[in-house]
Structure formats: structure tokens, C-alpha cells
TrEMBL record:
Gene name of the record: acsA
Record note on modification: Acetylated. Deacetylation by the SIR2-homolog deacetylase activates the enzyme.
Family note: Belongs to the ATP-dependent AMP-binding enzyme family.
AMP-dependent synthetase/ligase domain: residues covered: 94-481
Chain ranges of the Acetyl-coenzyme A synthetase N-terminal domain: 39-90
Modified residues (N6-acetyllysine): K624
EC code: 6.2.1.1
Protein name as it appears in the record: Acetyl-coenzyme A synthetase
Presence of the UniProt keyword Cytoplasm in the record: no
Amino acid sequence: MTEQNGTIESHPVHHGEVAETYPPNAEFKAQARVNDPSVYWRAAQDPEGYWADEATNLQWTKPFTEILDWSNPPFAKWFADGELNVSVNCLDRHVAAGLGDRVAIHFEGEPGDARSITYAELTHEVKRAANMLTSLGVTAGDRVALYMPMIPETVISMLAVARLGAAHSVVFGGFSAESLRARIDDAEAELVITADGGYRKSRVSALKPTVDDALALHGGGSTVQKVLVVERTKNDVTMEPGRDLWWHEEITAYDGDHEAQGFPAENPLFILYTSGTTGKPKGILHTSGGYLTQVSTTHRNVFDLKPETDVYWCTADIGWITGHSYVVYGPLANGATQVIYEGTPETPTWGRWWEIIQKYGVSIFYTAPTAIRSFMKIGRQVPEQYDLSSIRVLGSVGEPINPEAWRWYREVIGAGSAPIVDTWWQTETGAMMIAPLPGLTHLKPGSAQAPLPGISATVADDDGNPVSNGQGGLLVVQRPWPAMVRTIWGDDERFKETYWEKFGDRYFAGDGARLDEDGDLWLLGRVDDVMNVSGHRLSTAEIESALIENHAVAESAVVGADDPTTGQAVVAFCVLKESYLTDHVNTEGLDQELRVFVGKQIGAIARPRNVYIVAELPKTRSGKIMRRLLKDIAEGKEIGDTSTLADTMVMSTIQDQVIGKK
Ligand code: 6R9
């Protein structure tokens, strides 16, 4: 199939794999930070030695002598007798190395306000904030909840909490009062840091009122003693005397002297809640030394970071793991210069992101497939109006990237030449695990390809036996890794059951995967999204990828719906391209056409039972498609819990469109 402009040729061959590979170009390879393939086998000979070497890039107040302690699996300890201060590693040591004048953060507010903050300034602000938090009673071992917009004070707060040896629990600003309260209660946080509001879609999105509501729930009595409020949007807020304090009033009392102390490598750094298979969110606990080692190493190597010259931008919100590891800790530990943007991509127009790239000369850009597909839907004419020539590395995270989106990303955003690193990892893994190295890997669109040096992950069958090339199964991580989840906060049993019961002392990721004939890894989505149709194993991601190869389809979601004859049946939901809709007023018959198309692409077994054309797909606020809800629709069931949807109205629209078809 040839893309609109005829520049990319691709040949779907089998199960969503494509024949084409993209080797690094000679110029990129020559300058790349990692361009000697022996790194893989050297790390494989001695993974612990590899990570110990990487850990010495950090500044330790007390050097470690132990590397990994796995004497009590699945509870790992890394570098346990070493001590360090995470905040000092992200700040003071760069200033001490003479890099104080380097910009740490180019902040771009949604309304257009902008400020650039150097490492010296950021260090100064974090020290002041640490002094302020100390006087509010925060000490090592405490938990502090953050409910913040994407502003520099969010980064400052996280680093100030870390500096004191306390742990933060960042709750994404889109969560409800009820969800916020559940997380505050579970972590027993005594301080909440929030803002009056943040800007989203040209409007003020209030935050402090939600904190008030959260703290008033369940009769009011919570663990929270103080609420610190950053002024951002100047919306009306009520301040409760004795409990609530304005950041800008408090901070004036504190200067920038703060001597940080070292804490044990296994000191908790943060808790981040993520949804599991049951209703109660899991508090994923990450600690200090191992986490900082792996996030900084992967950030440098996977993005080929040159901190002196690169301008890095990760579009993730700090409320998610990607924001923790690749907005805050990875880039700052590496002394990188980065962009932080407060708002949404379409504000005030769909050109906003590209304008920001042009303005700051962004050279490394990291975003999610769902965003790329949104831009594809709008059309390449928007990014084409901007100068994106500074881009040299592109990253993808969050879900499998379909080859069609991969090619568009490379062609339209990466000038047809930027390597794309498709990074597989999870809240639980803390840092990237499977990803290409851009100076070495012959890239395959849609595949995350190989475990990073020092990581041993593979595909196993249900009994835990490794599968051969060409076969599918479950993704397992065979050895402990430095940034791994240490436990589920307050629930060691659930930690064991969820990740370790299935394969003993190996980690069960919950993702399906297959190895292609070359031994490259293809992630196939959550195992709950793997369908079994007439005894054949089919991946939702694979069929979605096929559908998106069709000229009419912008985005698709596939579910396995219960079927009396075949066990499960494939049901597809498709959003059409704007360009297709302009040319076709009538979409009658397109559903049949798409069924046949999938049959042709993958095989008759994969042909969807139903294809529904819908205006939108249900997504969480972090952009993940909620297939569970689509499955309910496909099975004619009552629709389940929609509380984590970004737009709860979307389900009734979809249902109307589907019923209209039945
Ligand atoms: C970082 C992050 C984790 C789940 C994971 C998998 C999916 C993430 C992916 C990917 C295929 C990739 N996932 N990256 N699937 N290719 N490059 O997203 O963490 O929010 O915890 O989600 O996301 O299914 O299990 P988290």
C-alpha cells in the first residue's frame, strides 16, 4: 500500500508485521551515544555488573557495595547499603559541575505565558520549597499528595519532597474528588499540594475546589493537616483557616540554603496509583537508587541524549508514570533541557505542538500513538506549516503503535529520517524495558523489538516455557531490574498475587507478545484483549492495525465479544478519516468493505463479525481506549463503570450509532 504522497512503500506480510526495516543512517549511527552492538551481550553476561556501572553515574553520599538482593523474592533490593539524595542528583550536582546556567525547563503555559528556568534557579527554588515543607512538618518517610496542573511548581514540589526523604503521591488533575480522597487515604498523606487551577482547552480547570470536596467526603476526618495552594489561574477559592496556605505567601519566609542529606537507596521515592483488574487502584511503590539509575540510563541511551545541545519534550502529564520517569527524574538526572507544556494539543489550534517544537527547536520528541492518530485525522497539512527540522529522535509510548501511524510519524514529523523508538514499559516497571537503540536497531514499524541492555524479557507460553520465533504468548521479565515496583503500597499479598503467582520468581506483565522470525518482540496488548476465536488466538492490536491500513479509517478499537458458536467473535469500532468523510457523504456498505479488507489483510479467521462506524472511541484521560466498555456494547450488555473516561458522554453516542445499525 502506498501512502497519499507516494513516498512510503510498505508490504503487510503477516500478523501486522511489515517487511520493511529502517536501519540507522550512517551519520546518525556515527554520532550515536550507543553504537557498538556488543553492549547487548556484555550486559547479558553480567546484568548486575552492567547496572552497578550505570549506578556509578549517580552521586552517592555513601557508595553501595551490594548490587541486587533477591534473597526474599519478589521483594527486591538494589544497591541497598548505598545512600544518595535523589533531588541533589537532579539539581545540585549539575550546578556544582558548572551547568547552573543551562535551561532545565522551558515552560509554556496554555494561554501563551512562557518562562525558562535554569538549573541554578530550579535548585534555588527546590531548596526554598524544601525549607518550607520542613516547617510544615514534612520529614523522611512521610507521604505528600500532589494534585496539580502541568506547571514548574509541580516539578519543584516533587523534588522538594524527594529532597527530604519523603514520598510523593501525584494524583492526575483529571481525577474526581472521590478518587483523590481514596488515594490520600490509602497513602495516609498529611499534606496536599495543589493549585487554584490550571488551563485546559482555553478554560480554567479548577483544582483546589476538588481538594476541598475530597477532604469533606466521608464526614471530613482525613489524615490531611495542611493544604498548600499554588496560585496559577486566580479563580475563586475558599481557604480554610489553619489548614490552607498560599504557596506564594509562605515561600517568602524561606531562603535558598538547604543542606540535603543522603537516604538509603531503598527509601521510598513515590507511590503512583494505577488501575488493576479489580476496582481498587494499586499504589505502585518505587524507591530511590535503582529507580534513578534505570530512568537516567534509559533516557540517555534510548533517546541518544546530548544534554549540551538537545531540547527534549515529552508530552505526558506528570500525573502518569511517563511524566514521573521521563519528564521529572530521567531528564533532570541527566541535566537535559526540556519543554513542559501546560495545555492540550488543540489549543488554540491543532498547530500548537508543532509551533512549540519550532519555537524551542525541540530535537527529541516523545508522545503516544493515540495523539499521533488524532493528528493524522486532522491531516498532515497542519504540521507541514511549521519548521520541524530540529527533530532528530521520535519516541512512542503507551500502547502498540500501528505501522500506519509509525510511518506517518516518521514521514510528517520526522522528515522521513528520524528514528522512532517504540518504548514498552509500565507503571510497575518504572522505566523503559523494551525499546530500540536508535544508533543500532534496524527499526520495524509496530515492534518495540528488543529488551534493553541489562533487561531480560521474553515470551512464554501459559506454563512459562519460552516460545520459539514466530510464536506468541505472554511477556515475562526473567530477572529483577533496578526500577521495578517494590510492592503495592500496604498490600504485599496483592503484589505477589498480581505479578508473581503465575510464573514464580519471574514477573508477569499482563501483556501478550510474540516473537517474529528474527526474534524481535511485538507487543500485542493486554492479555485481556487477546481474543480466542474458534480456538485461534487473535490480537485486538493486530486487527486494529489492519483496519487502519484502510484509506477510510483513522482509528479503530477491536474487542472479542462472547459468541455462542466461536467462543469469541471479533467486533470492530472505527472512526473515519476527515478526508474520507469529505469525499463520501454516504458510508453505507463501508462496514462490509472493511470486514472483507481485514480478511484480506490477515486471513478469514480475523474478519470481524461486525464493524461499527462511530464518531469517537471511549478513552481514559491518559488516552487509552477502554475496550471493556466497547465489549459491553458489542455484547448488548449494560455498560460498565465509565468514571475513568475523559468524556463520559461518548458512550451514549456510540450506543446510538451501534443500535442504529442493528
Ligand atoms: C508507560 C505506560 C502500561 C501498559 C502496558 C502495555 C501498554 C505501554 C507500550 C505498550 C505496546 C508499547 N504499553 N507502552 N504496549 N507498546 N510501546 O504506558 O505505563 O500506563 O502503566 O501502561 O501500556 O499494555 O502493559 P502504563
